[in-house]
Prior knowledge:
binds inosine 5'-triphosphate, single chain, Maf protein, 34% helix
Amino acid sequence: MRLAFVTSNPGKVEEAKKYLEPLGIEVYQLRFEYPEIQADTLEEVAEYGVMWLAERIKEPFFLDDSGLFVDALRGFPGVYSAYVYRTLGYQGILKLLEGETNRRAHFKSVIACWVGELHLFTGTVEGEITTEPRGRFGFGFDPVFKPHGFDKTFAEMTTEEKNRISHRGRALEAFAQWLRENL
Length: 183
Ligand code: ITT
């Protein structure tokens, strides 16, 4: 089966391909800009996007809305992660946390799939914000996020390593499980 991944982010596509292609699902990137509403949760943003796209895209598709939630910043940037990354980058997060000892943070990913009806799959990963960027793989905030129980940042991991423990990997796992049972 072929599934369109509606995203502007090739890093996300790489992760989804690594996860879903061994299951016989061909994933391809579809660049189709959709409105990302201001809302309190990633689920609301993802759901609005899917319903808007469902009226415009004929084939089955999914999208992923993710965010980095930093404890000491009371969950910021959260639903504003894309905007913060575009304007301040991960350096901005390091700057906001300068001198802060509580570096706990988590990533959350919401995959929203449209197959004639809406299905949501979520995943989270707990970790901490490093004091300096490390690694050159991945994308976004990966160089400054170290998952709990690991010495490497996400940017020091291969896609396979990151997928095994990441927010998106977990959401993809739930998504794959559902695809196996329902399609
Ligand atoms: P699309 O909305 O087009 O899919 P995006 O990169 O704008 O792509 P999001 O709005 O979901 O994606 O992402 C919010 C921000 O969080 C964005 O800047 C990402 O780079 C970052 N982000 C999301 N997942 C990440 C991950 O696994 N590792 C590092 N940063 C991530």
